[in-house]
Amino acid sequence: MRDEPIELAAALAGFDQLWSPRIVTRVNDYDVRIAKVAGEHVWHVHEHTDEFFLVLDGELRIALRAGAEEREVVLPRGAVFVVPRGVEHRPSSAGGASILMFEPSGTSSVGDRHETVPDHVDATTGHAL
Question: What is the pTM of this model?
Answer without folding.
Answer: 0.93
